[in-house]
Amino acid sequence: MADLDLITEKNNLVNSPVYKRIRELQLNSIVEMANKQIDPLIIKGMLKNINDTDNWENDFKVTKKKNEEQKK
After folding, report:
1. Cα–Cα distance between 17 and 7 in angstroms, integer?
2. DSSP 3-state assignment of 36?
């Protein structure tokens, strides 16, 4: 059940206004860096990390659906 607790916590975080603001600030920072001479691999890694975090909501939905199907 600990995994479900963590997935639920991640879902709550990613859907919070605080995360939305952090994400916005991070993306603005990445755009500024992309306009300078910075290794594209670093930019790609930063964007992948944001994308992985954004996927927490989907992970929650998939897990919730699996749990509901198992209960049937």
Report:
1. 18
2. coil
